[in-house]
Amino acid sequence: MKPMQFEIDDIIKRAIKEDINYIDVTTDYLIDDNLTSSARYVSKDDGVVCGIEFAMRVFELLDSDITYEILIHDGEEVKKGDIIAVIHGRVKTLLKGERTALNIVCHLSGIATQTRKCVELIKGTNASVADTRKTLPGLRSLQKYAVTVGGGKNHRYNLSDCAMLKDTHLDAYGSITNAVNALREHLGHTVKIEVETTNLDEVKEALDVGAELIMLDNMSCEQMAEAVKLCDKRALLEASGNVTEETIRSIAETGVDIISIGALTHSVKCFDISMKMEKNK
Questions:
Q1: Which residues contact 236 (CB under 8 A, 6 or more apart)?
Q2: With CB atoms counted within 10 Å of each terminal CB, which end of the chain scores lower, N or C?
C-alpha cells in the first residue's frame, strides 16, 4: 500500500535537506534563475518501475511551477532505453533535485524488480514472497511499498504488529511453550504469535502450544517438507534464511506458505535510471 502523502513528503524533505545545506554552490552561481528546460527519465535496464511519483514530488516540493508527465507508472515493466517520465521547469530546480529524485526511484525500482523476479520464480506454488524488517532506517514505508509493487507481500511493519518469538527471546525466556503461554496472558485477540524454529522438535512444540505462524529458520528443504507434513495446515509456515534465486523454487516446492527475504530491502541492487537534460543552445 502506498504511504500517506504527508509521510512521503517528510521523507523527501529530509532527503533534500541532507543534500542541500543552504545553497547549491554549483547551480546557484552558474545557472540563471529564469532559464527553463526539460529533462527525460530514461531507463538503462529492464525491470519494474517504482517510486516515479515520489521522484517527481521532489521537484514539486522545490518549485511549485514544475510540470511533468509520467509515461510508465509504478508496477509497469520497462525496457532499456524507455522514457519513464518527462519533466519541465527551471533548470536550477531540475539540477538541485536530480540526485535526490534518482536515489528514490532507482532504489525502489530495484526492490520492485528483484521482488517481481522472485515472485515469477515460484509461480504455480502455494508460497508467497514477503519482506522483513531489515529495512534502511527512515525508509521502511517506501521500501515495503516497493515490495508490493513487485508483487510481494509485507511482513510486519514494526514490533507492534505481531508477537514474534525469535531465538533471542526464547533463549532469554527459557522455552517456546512457556513464552507463548506468557504472551497470551497479555495479548489482545487481534495479535498473532509467530515462533522461530530451527528443527522439527521445535516445530512440534510450537504447534502443540498453538502458535499461528511458525518460522522455519535456515532449515534444509528436506526438513521444511517434513515440517509441512507435521503442520498439516494447523499454522502458516514461513521459510527464512539465505534464500537465493537458485534456491527459492526448491523452497517453495516444499509446500511452505511464505518465503521471507531480507535481501529485498537491505541489499538489493539499485535499478539504473538516468535524467537526461535538453542541451541549452
A1: 212, 213, 214, 257, 258
A2: C
**217 tagged catalytic:** yes
Amino acid at 108: L
- pLDDT higher than threshold 70 for residue 281: no
Of these residues, 196, 202, 205, 257, which one is catalytic? Answer: 196
Flag whether the pTM goes above 0.90. yes
Catalytic residue among 2, 40, 44, 99: 99
Helices 140-149 and 91-121: angle between axes, nearest 10 degrees: 60
Per-residue HEC secondary structure of the chain comes to CCCCHHHHHHHHHHHHHHHCCCCCCCHHHHCCCCCEEEEEEEECCCEECCCHHHHHHHHHHHCCCCEEEECCCCCCEECCCCEEEEEEEEHHHHHHHHHHHHHHHHHHHHHHHHHHHHHHHCCCCCCEEECCCCCCCCCHHHHHHHHHHCCCECCCCCCCCCEEECHHHHHHHCCHHHHHHHHHCCCCCCCCEEEEECCHHHHHHHHHCCCCEEEEECCCHHHHHHHHHHHCCCCEEEEECCCCCCCHHHHHCCCCCEEECCHHHHCCCCCCEEEEECCCC
pLDDT tens-digit profile of 245-257? 999 999 999 999 9
Closest Cα to residue 264, out of 57, 77, 114? Answer: 114
Residue 281 known to be catalytic: no
Told to judge if 232 belongs to the known catalytic residues of this protein, a careful annotator would answer no
Catalytic residue among 24, 217, 253, 272: 217
d(CA 107, CA 150): 13
